[in-house]
Amino acid sequence: MSDETEIPDRFVKLDEVKRRVGLGKTMIYRLIQEGRFPAPYKLSPFASRWSDREIMAWINDVKDGFEGKKRKI
User: Fold this and answer.
1) Exposed, middle or buried, 72 (CB in 10 Å: 0-12/13-18/19+)?
2) Torsions phi, psi for 47 (to 5 deg)
3) N or C, where is the chain less crowded by C-beta within 10 Å?
């Protein structure tokens, strides 16, 4: 069974996304425009939320490095 089916997904607000990835709103939206960050889901005209699972995957990709280099610890 894959990790994705074991971990339930949930929607998170921008403030939580900013806290978890350490980036501000402007940089997050710039990366979204460049196709380098997960886009939010529009739940209503006044509510956008991000997939917790997609944010975790993005963090793991960054840890692995955009050029596929793993950091040596």
Assistant:
1) exposed
2) -140, 120
3) C
With tokens 């460049």, the residue in question is 34
Express each pLDDT in 15-42 by its tens digit: 999 999 999 999 999 999 999 999 999 9
Of 1, 10, 4, 17, residue with least CA distance to 59: 17
> What are the φ and ψ backbone dihedral angles of 61, each rounded to 5 degrees?
-65, -40
Note the pTM of the prediction, 2 decimals.
0.77
- For residues 32 and 30, give the distance between their C-alpha atoms in angstroms, rounded to a whole number: 5
- How does residue 53 score in pLDDT terms, banded at 50, 70 and 90? very high
* 3-class state of residue 42 by DSSP: strand
